[in-house]
Design goal:
The complex is a heterodimer of chains A (284) and B (333). Chain A has 284 residues and is of the alpha/beta class. Chain A has helices at 42-49, 93-101, 111-117, 133-143, 163-178, 190-196, 214-221, 246-258, 271-279, and strands at residues 2-9, 19-26, 31-35, 57-62, 65-66, 78-81, 151-155, 182-187, 199-204, 207-212, 225-232, 235-242, 260-266. Chain A has a 6-stranded mixed β-sheet, sandwiched between helices. In chain A, strands 2-1-4-5 form a 4-stranded antiparallel β-sheet. In chain A, strands 12-11-13 form a 3-stranded antiparallel β-sheet, covered by helices on one side. In chain A, a hairpin with a 2-residue loop joins β11 (225-232) and β12. The longest helix of chain A has 16 residues, at 163-178. Chain B has 2 domains: 12-40 and 141-331, no CATH class; 48-130, D-Maltodextrin-Binding Protein, domain 2 (3-Layer(aba) Sandwich), CATH 3.40.190. Chain B has helices at residues 2-18, 20-39, 58-65, 76-83, 109-124, 144-175, 178-182, 188-213, 221-245, 249-256, 260-272, 285-297, 303-331; strands spanning 48-53, 68-73, 89-95, 98-102. A 4-stranded mixed β-sheet of chain B has the order 2-1-3-4. In chain B, α3 links the parallel β1 (48-53) and β2 (68-73). Classes of the chains: A alpha/beta (284), B alpha/beta (333). At the A-B interface, α2 of A face α1, α6 and α7 of B.
């Protein structure tokens, strides 16, 4: 669905590249996470893919279209939810969606259906200028689905949303993906990437350092330990056991069979820890 | 492309009707035209107004009607009230078998004399056919001040069209919606055309409203719109530039006011400078538009003449377009 090869981009049009030799592919139906700190080159790459920035060097194919000679028809197939909400403040939520749907050449979704999905149906006739930041963000998110995109670009889709709404948004993303929509997720939130993505790419200083599935990364970089809390002689005891060493495995079995277990979980590395380990950089 | 440009225009139109400042710009042509009608003598109203009391002397009323507008009132009170209104209006009132002219007191002396002469002519039974006077005219058929105001007003409206575009671009920038629009199948050219339509609409509607309200409805509309629409290209380009350069409506409007300088300069220069200095104004498209409109409003314009002016305006506008287009394109990305 997306193929990027040897992509370079320089805003100053010299050797100071914001994106350097970036190559990756996103398969149809995949949720691909593009992770990196601010200024890493995420937005630059995404803007080139969506045609907002002109391709300088390299090849980029999106939904079967070469972005070097971008066709307006390509936009019938893609949707984009921006990190910063961008809706017409003098139009109501419904009018915003009604306006955008008319610009597409393909079958579009009913505005009220989308507003209901993001919990704004009872605010349909209120001007977006009167919305809170979170509500505007949800309207921007809803708008990105208006043309039934087969490729969906999501830039920080849950930023600024309360946990309940964020959870609903994640549910919508999963649901769309189940319907076959390919999703390119740009974020610095490792938790949402971990929850949703089939594969992630780590990008730092304009270069991709690693591409793999969250599961593989955890297996590769996580400690192979189990942490157990159990009650022994009336007191809570906390111990770690290796899942590789035979002695530790035997001890673990003994603890499980003998004592009352309070908590037990594998000591997996989080994506954030792996990112720091791989890149030596924080994600902020 | 045009269908999508039309959608952009309709959105702008809807939003402009909800915005006080934009709505005010839309109403300005009407206000301006009505103001001209109030301040300048009407082109259709070159006679004087007389009032008489009903049933007094119908022959006299019929005689005056040949040379003046005559209104008949049922009593003296109504006639007095009419005379007291702000325009020049005279009563022809009977007293002791004779008639006198009743005026408010602040009327133009020449108009008073005209009323007196009319009364005398009636008493002497003078008829128009008896005159030996031969009449030649120099071709002026409309009051020059009114024509100047209407002409200037039309060009002023074209600048307002540019201002409207600026407001709509600034709105897109403040709401950060341009990027979202660029990710729809509308082309950049289609978007620019759509954004220009509000300026063209204001110019078209304003020009037509202006000439209809001010009594110039019988001019060659096609010639007038050819000149005005071409002159509006400059305003549209400057409107776009100010839109992409500013993030604030008030700043943008203040900067756009600079366009009034060549506009007023062109009009003042065309009216006041001698022929040998007119060359200094040749670079201003408004100068050619003013000349073209002037010819149309006096109904002396020929198509070759309009074609020449339109060609010059277009050539200047194209040059300005090539100068400003890269910045506009970059600003909208």
């Amino acid at each position: 669905m997306i193929k990027v090869s040897n992509l370079y981009h320089s805003y100053s049009k010299d050797e100071h590249y914001a994106v350097k030799d970036v190559s990756f592919e996103v398969k149809e139906g995949e949720i691909f996470g593009f992770l990196g700190p601010s200024g890493a080159g995420k937005s630059t790459t995404q803007n080139i893919m969506t045609g907002l920035l002109q391709l300088q060097k390299g090849t980029v194919t999106v939904a079967g279209y070469d972005v070097k000679t971008i066709s307006n028809k390509m936009f019938n197939q893609i949707g984009m939810s921006f990190e910063e909400s961008n809706v017409y403040s003098k139009l109501s939520a419904k009018e915003n969606l009604e306006f955008y749907r008319k610009l597409f050449d393909v079958e579009t979704r009913e505005p009220m259906e989308l507003l209901r999905m993001v919990g704004l149906h009872d605010k349909a006739d209120i001007r977006a200028g009167e919305f809170s930041k979170g509500m505007k963000h949800r309207l921007t998110f809803a708008r990105s689905m208006i043309n039934n995109p087969t490729l969906w670009f999501l830039d920080e889709p849950t930023t600024g949303l309360d946990p309940a709404i964020a959870s609903e948004i994640k549910g919508i993303i999963r649901e769309q993906n189940k319907k076959g929509v390919t999703i390119f997720l740009t974020t610095h939130n490792m938790y949402i990437a971990d929850e949703l993505c089939d594969r992630v790419a780590f990008i730092v200083d304009g270069e991709i350092l690693l591409i793999d599935s969250p599961r593989n990364l955890k297996l590769q970089y996580g400690d192979k330990l189990v942490e157990v809390e159990y009650i022994k002689d009336g007191e809570i005891v906390k111990e770690s056991f290796s899942t590789i060493q035979k002695d530790d495995l035997a001890k673990l079995q003994e603890v499980i069979g003998t004592y009352e277990i309070q908590t037990m979980h594998t000591k997996e590395a989080t994506l954030e820890e792996i990112f720091i380990k791989v890149t030596g950089r924080e994600l902020v | 492309m045009l269908k999508k440009s039309w959608i952009i225009f309709m959105r702008d139109f809807k939003v402009n009707l909800r915005d006080f400042l934009a709505l005010y710009l839309l109403l300005i042509p009407l206000i301006f035209a009505l103001g001209i009608n109030l301040l300048a003598p009407s082109i259709n109203d070159t006679t004087i107004n007389l009032g008489m009391i009903a049933g007094e002397n119908s022959d006299q009323a019929a005689y005056f009607s040949q040379y003046a507008k005559v209104e008949v009132f049922s009593n003296q009170e109504d006639l007095d009230a009419r005379i007291m209104r702000r325009d020049d209006f005279f009563g022809i009132v009977a007293e002791g078998g004779e008639y006198y002219v009743l005026k408010q007191g602040n009327e133009n002396e020449g108009v008073v004399d005209y009323a007196k002469v009319l009364l005398t002519f009636y008493e002497q039974d003078v008829q128009l056919e008896e005159t030996n006077a031969e009449i030649f005219d120099l071709g002026r058929t409309v009051p020059p001040m009114k024509k100047l105001l209407v002409n200037g007003g039309i060009l002023f409206i074209s600048v307002l069209g540019g201002m409207m575009i600026t407001f709509n671009i600034v709105e897109e920038k403040v709401d950060r919606t341009i990027r979202a629009i660029l990710l729809t199948p509308i082309s950049r050219r289609g978007f620019i055309v759509g954004k220009s339509m509000m300026g063209v609409f204001l110019t078209l509607y304003g020009t037509i409203a202006m000439i209809l309200i001010t009594g110039f409805g019988n001019v060659n509309l096609l010639q007038l719109l050819t000149v005005v629409l071409l002159a509006s290209i400059i305003s549209i380009l400057v409107g776009f530039i100010q839109g992409v350069r500013n993030d604030d409506v008030i700043n943008a409007a203040a900067n756009l006011k600079l366009l009034f300088l060549p506009l007023v300069g062109a009009i003042a220069g065309a009216e006041l400078l001698s022929d040998k200095w007119q060359i200094l104004l040749y670079w201003i498209p408004f100068y050619w538009a003013y000349k073209g409109n002037d010819a149309v409003l006096t109904q002396t314009a020929t198509w070759p003449q309009i074609g020449l002016y339109a060609g010059i305006i277009l050539a200047i506008s194209v040059a300005v377009y090539f100068l400003l287009a890269p910045e506009i394109k970059e600003g909208l990305e």
